[in-house]
Amino acid sequence: MRYLTIVAFVTLAFVSCKKEEDDSSSAAFDKGAMLTNLADNTILPALADYQEKVAELKSAFDTFETDASSANFDLLREKWQAAYLAYQTVKMYDFGPFRNYGYKGATGTFPTDTAVVESNISSGTYNLASAGNTVAIGFSALDYLLYNPDAFTRLNEVGYKTYTKDVIYKLSDETTAVVSAWSSYRSTFVSSTGTETTSSFSELVNEFNRDYELAKTAKLGIPIGIQSFGIQLPEYIEAPYSGISLDLLRTNIASIHRLYNGKSHAGSSNGSGFDDYLVHLEKSALNTTINNTFDQIITKIDTFQGTLEEEMQSNPSELEALYNLIQSQVVNLKTDMTSSFGVLITYQDNDGD
Amino acid sequence: MTEISSKWTNYFAFDKQVSITPLIIYRIIFGVLMLFGVSRFLFKGWVQQLYIDPQFYFGYLGFEWVKPLPGNWMYLPFILMLLAAIGITIGYLYRYSAFVFFLCFTYVELLDKSNYLNHYYFVSLMSFLMVLVPANAKFSVDALRNPSIRRDTTSQWHIGILKFQLAVVYIFAGIAKLNSDWLFHAEPLRTWLQAHHTIPFFGQFLQMKETAYLFSWFGCLYDLFIVFFLLTAKTRKFAYLFVVGFHLITWYLFPIGVFPWVMIFSTLIFFSNEFHEKVLTFLKRMLCITQQENVPGGKSSGQTNPLVLIFLVIYMAAQITLPFRYTLYPGDLFWNEEGFRFSWRVMLMHKEGYATFYVKDKATGRTAQIDNTHYLTQTQIDQMSTQPDMILQYARFLKTKYDGRTFSFGEKEITITDPSVHAEVYVSLNGRPSQLFIDRKHDLTTLPYNLSHRNWIEPFTP
Predict the structure, then answer these.
(1) φ and ψ at A243, to 5 degrees?
(2) Which pTM was predicted?
(3) Domain Imelysin-like: where (chain A) (predicted)?
């Protein structure tokens, strides 16, 4: 027994001596600094930009309401597109204020159910906050309201106009609430660096992955028939009336890429992000693969000239190739990157087996 | 030498009479811990999440007939466990309580291997052993009601078997750590510890690879030898400080639930009779029990049924052999996970996977990619994605979901007959880049689900 004690202690002493000798191991990394960079240079500027675009959408509607000219109608559509694209730069932050307000569901649910929209318009009484109306509000409902063939004429009908206004105002109110909640949430966000599932770092990584998969599945996979034995489902296309689905997909993925690298929202300054964390963890090769794949995806999306609906008719195999490319990145992000971070993905007890 | 050998043979004198007090104290500790553990489980809403919400359960091979109760009836076994834990603690209808606890706990554990944890297996075994021992023969409601069962001594194996079980947990957890990832790459601890680098002051050390090596080696030596230090009177107190320190650190750093507390309190069983007497006196004073139990408690009859003894020997032999059953399989244990469970491989590897399933209509060749979240919970997906037997079970489940079904998509209809199910799975083990784990070429529904080696797992490249 005494022998064992000695063996144990000699070994301990040996290992601890070793520790003192080469203290200059890998350079330190600070998750807190990374979160601060992401909050101040990526997330908050993106939110401010988005909020501004939503405000412009609202004022464009107000302008149109006083003067329903076709120029003002075009402006309204233009502002809607700008806001919808800006939404792609913030939708992956579905935790904290977003989650508290149920913001992502109320804003980005698609496809819209035009039957519900129409029945709301004709009845004139509706509660847009009800669960049943999730499919009749947000950007997707506006895609229908502003881009269906009769949109311009029907916007002169009182019921139609009021409904459009209510959807835009609801969106605007909630956006203001969520963005202002973020300014006080910021300090929680940057300080919650733990490994538990509720830490903001874990939530950020999990929602990053979830949003990437959502872009892959909902924006592309389901419409092109990946889950339906190759039978295309055009009714699941996002923004079918305006035809901007592929732009939305592109902005969504480009924003996820930006977040990954910790790049600032506006400029190109590159701060601390997931990429730097991976490099610190001696995973440079993975980082290169991830960045290259993101670039390839964007390049591939840019090869499509038509709308998603048109490309589904004329070019289905290339869309499937795009899908496969996006799919190939999931394992890099969800498995390799996330497991390197030591982020927990389960709420259960775990003894690591 | 002779002294040592006689000491060792002493351990096998099953019916040698020893003080019963350590057993009594252990009964109380076990009961309270279980009461706490089950309450915590209920409080966290896990009954709903793990045993009511799922559409599909990953049963154990040979135990697929164990099914969850419908809906909220799943709360019943947990309520029974609470009552049984109280029964164990106060020693009321003790054997029934212990048996009900064992039955309910094991039933719940058998429902879904996604929830397998070594410490749940440990609780199942311990509660089973508790059924066998007369832990109510003193300081219990049963003994109060029926003084004739009262004993001051008991057969040595009644306590020895519990010590044996604890020793098995530690020593095999230590043996499991004797692998190159653990010792020479300090993985998975290196990955896990660096994630804590933001802890004030200590965090900076957790980011250093030297710390990961220190933790790995210390953890391994601790597991291998702590039991021997606890068994030796001279080193016991010192060793117990290590027990407390070790488990508190693991409790702080890792989400391993009640396990640290179970071990911290269970290892008290290694302490001396005098220690346990003091605890008992303290408990009596706390409960204001003035009535002395010094009325001659009587000695145990001291004769254990030979059948029970034979069973014990088989039980112990099984406990010692089971963790080595993996040697019957070719390939890498951590990769293939053949003979991995029930072997005390605790906090040993960091395995993450990504599994994409495809259902293919053989007649038309049309393929659908499956959204796993339609059928499985997040926990189930995470567990399934790295474990071949679960991948196979899920594939079979998918076949039943699609076979013969007609799906209509808008105007179009498609009827699936006798589909094949394929999976493309990538797995990352202990910080390595992910590798192909299951190739899409296999029709998983044609592969056998049994204990033989699964040669359809892609080979592991270290």
Answers:
(1) 75, 25
(2) 0.92
(3) 43-324
CA distance B427 to B191: 16
Residue B290 has pLDDT above 80, yes or no: no
Pick among A335, A336, A343, A345 to test the B interface (most B CBs inside 10 A): A335
Closest C-alpha to A294, from A345, A238, A333, A340: A333
| A297 within domain boundaries | yes
Nearest-CA distance from B266 to chain A in Å? 18
Rounded Cα–Cα distance for residues B274 and B270 (Å): 12
**Within this chain, do residues A38 and A184 fall inside the same structural domain, yes or no?**
yes
Q: What is the mean pLDDT of residues A232-251?
A: 97
Query: What average pLDDT does range A132-155 have in this prediction?
Result: 97
Q: What DSSP state is assigned to residue A163?
A: H
A104 belongs to a structural domain: yes
Domain coordinates of chain B in residue numbers? 2-327, 350-446
Record: contact A233-B410, CB cut-off 8 A = yes
**Interface contact A5-B235, CB threshold 8 A:** yes
Looking at the structure, tell me whether residues A216 and A319 fall in a common domain: yes
Per residue in B310-323, pLDDT (tens digit) is 999 999 999 999 99
Q: Identify whether A11 is part of a domain.
A: no
> How far apart are the CA of A195 and the nearest CA of chain B, in angstroms?
6
What is the number of structural domains in chain A?
A: 2
Cβ–Cβ below 8 Å for A16 and B361: no
Give the range of the structural domain holding residue A240, as residue numbers without chain letter: 192-347
Query: Are residues B259 and A349, on separate chains, in Cβ contact within 8 Å?
Result: yes
The interface predicted TM-score (ipTM) is: 0.90
Residues of chain B found within 8 Å of residue A225, distances taken between Cβ atoms: 409
Q: Which residues contact B326 (CB under 8 A, 6 or more apart)?
A: B333, B338, B339, B340, B343
Residues A236 and A214 in one domain: yes
